[in-house]
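User: Please predict the structure of the protein below. I'd like the answer in structure-token form so I can feed it into my own downstream comparison script.

Assistant: Understood. Taking the following sequence of 109 residues as input:
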Amino acid sequence: MADFTIQNLATAEDAFEEADEGYSSRITVSIQQRTGRKSTTLIEGLDPEFNFNKILKYMRKNFRCNGAVVKSKTGEEIILLQGNQGDDVISFMVDMNICKKEQIIRKGI
């Protein structure tokens, strides 16, 4: 019989360590359907060092929508925008170097 050894199981490293390399957090952009054609866009997971009100002000002006900064049940601040602004939000965050495209998770429509 041949003696087989599995070499990659001998290390105690995390299997997902390479996947998250360089990313401190994941940012979730989710679109929730309200009533009929209406929807809202939620941006979660942004670093607390950012000025959420400045980001919101820029988004409201350029996307021509209303929005607010709200607190979640866990105490995290969330940016809430009216309408389906998912594509605009993702391109804005990548263009302004808030995060990399690989960090963004898109949920919803």
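That's the full token string. The helical segments are 52-63, 86-95.
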